[in-house]
Design brief:
InterPro entries: Amidase_dom, AS_sf. Keywords: Signal. This is Amidase domain-containing protein. Pfam families: Amidase. The structure is a single chain. The chain has a single domain, classed as Amidase signature (AS) enzymes, CATH 3.90.1300. β2 and β3 form a beta hairpin. It has an eleven-stranded mixed sheet, sandwiched between helices. A two-stranded antiparallel ribbon has the order 2-3. The chain has 17 helices and 15 strands. The protein is 37% helix and 13% strand. 52% of the residues are buried. With 484 residues, the chain is of the alpha/beta class.
Length: 484
């Protein structure tokens, strides 16, 4: 069963996240305009406030910029704000007065992960000084679609340097040279996770209502989980990767990180679709985009008649929130879903180990080819190849903290010889078999609409197969709960 077939029978892999009560409530800014409170407002709430003249895009942008100024020095979520954001807001307000609003995202500020290109005054650097000042040839395709919808590009969010793919020490680290260390806004001692942590933190703390992240393996769903927000990892090919700093053409995808499922769906509706510059990936996925968009499925009765599989082992064994998990299963049943419990995925331990599955081996080869191609297409760049990035890091050990964090993955990637070697061909074959005999078989044999697990350790399963996933908050744990 191919990837495109899976799209038609499996809507999502559903991941249960756990919310924390933290310090974000301690730093409030005035956010009430004509009785409308911006904090926690959804896209639809904001649009209603626009319609009633209780709010303008300019006031909304000002509020978010003030929040960023107040919170970001502590949290480290945002790398830079768009100096043209207020002008874009004024334009949106003017268009609204002329009844020229274009979509639900019209006049809504959006923060973008600092690997998504914008042809404006913002940088696109993957958190590294090596790309500071580089010039992109155009907006990323997803950014063009956001602009066409009337969205305001508010700024760029932080991420682990080069997605954490620079070295084994940077994997999962909430740090980059340009932004420093980022903090989890709910539990200061806990990780905000990687690599779209800046987008997740900014949404969780009302620095913005909606944001975009990217994922190769866990980079949307993990920070969404750790920061108690909603993240959608679309099927690979559903959103174009053109203009996005790459790791892997097989696994990279761009998706929304928001506070609610409805906001994430509204964002997804805007950014999906065919792109000639990402032809191979987007041509097959386009036919699965429903006419009328995904918002038509935002139905409170939508679970009725659905079959939800539950993958407990080994994820629930590692968790201290069994009672919360059981409560959520009961909610699914109460809403009319059939729960198929205690499912097993063949060779799951191998799938979850990126070394055993071959994922790391393939990513190292793909990254060198992909990043070299991206760099060569830039209008201007201080570096034009992975080899030159390695040299930059070597020559700037203080700026890039090369001594502390290293760049062993970069060096290993530079030593690869493409994706046509016998080793890579065999590794790709193994991963394809793992996916078909694992996730796809479970979905097909049990006729599932979705597969549910707790946490995000399951992410390699749908990363290597290009499958979609969504993570949603599921409740608050008892005091002193330790998230792992």
């Amino acid at each position: 069963m191919g990837k495109t077939t899976v799209i038609s029978i499996c809507l999502v892999v559903l991941l249960i996240a756990v919310a924390f009560k933290g310090f974000i409530d301690k730093r409030q800014t005035v956010d009430e305009y004509s009785g409308f409170v911006i904090s926690e407002a959804t896209i639809e709430d904001i649009q209603e406030a626009f319609d009633r003249n209780h709010l303008t895009s300019r006031k909304l942008v000002d509020f978010y910029l003030n929040r960023i100024q107040a919170l970001n020095p502590t949290l480290g979520a945002v790398l830079e704000v768009n100096p043209d954001a207020r002008d874009q807001a004024d334009k949106a307000d003017s268009e609204r007065k002329q009844h020229r609003d274009r979509s639900l995202l019209h006049g809504i500020p959006v923060l973008l992960k600092d690997s998504i290109a914008t042809l404006d005054k913002l940088n696109t650097t993957a958190g590294s000084y090596a790309l500071l000042g580089s010039k992109v040839p155009r907006d990323a395709h997803v950014v063009s679609k956001l602009r066409d919808a009337g969205a305001i590009i508010l700024g760029k969010t932080s991420l682990p340097v080069w997605y954490g793919f620079r070295s084994y020490k940077t994997i999962g680290q909430a740090w980059c040279p340009r932004g420093g260390i980022a903090l989890n806004p709910y539990v200061e001692s806990k990780s905000p996770c990687a690599s779209s942590f800046g987008s997740a933190i900014s949404v969780a703390t009302n620095m913005v209502a909606v944001s975009l992240g990217t994922e190769t393996d866990g980079s949307i769903i993990c920070p969404a989980d750790h920061n108690s927000v909603v993240g959608i990892k679309p099927t690979v090919g559903l959103t174009s990767r053109d203009g996005v700093i790459p790791i892997s053409p097989r696994q990279d995808t761009i998706g929304p990180i928001c506070r609610t499922v409805s906001d994430a769906v509204h964002m997804l509706d805007v950014i999906v679709g065919f792109d000639l510059r990402d032809y191979e990936a987007t041509k097959s996925a386009e036919k699965f985009i429903p006419s009328g968009g995904y918002k038509q499925f935002l139905n409170k009765q939508g679970l009725k008649g659905k079959i939800i599989g539950v993958l407990r082992n080994p994820f629930l064994d590692r968790s201290n929130v069994t009672s919360i998990f059981e409560d959520q299963l009961n909610v699914l049943r109460e809403r009319g879903a059939t729960v198929v419990d205690n499912l097993e995925v063949e060779n799951l331990s191998t799938i979850l180990d990126p070394f055993q599955s071959g994922e790391v081996t393939i990513l190292l080869s793909e990254f060198k080819l992909s990043i070299n191609k991206y760099l060569q297409e830039l209008t201007y760049s201080p570096v034009r190849s992975l080899a030159e990035i390695i040299e930059f890091n070597t020559n700037n050990p203080i700026l890039e903290k090369t001594t502390e964090y290293g760049q062993d993955l970069f060096i290993a990637s530079e030593m690869t010889s493409g994706i046509e070697t016998s080793e890579i061909i065999e590794a790709l074959k193994v991963m394809d078999e793992l996916s078909k005999n694992g996730f796809e078989r479970v979905i097909k044999e049990n006729q599932l609409d979705a597969l549910l697990a707790i946490g995000t350790d399951v992410s390699p399963m749908f990363a290597i197969g290009g499958y979609p996933a969504i993570t949603v908050p599921a409740g608050k744990p008892p005091p002193h709960f330790s998230f792992t």
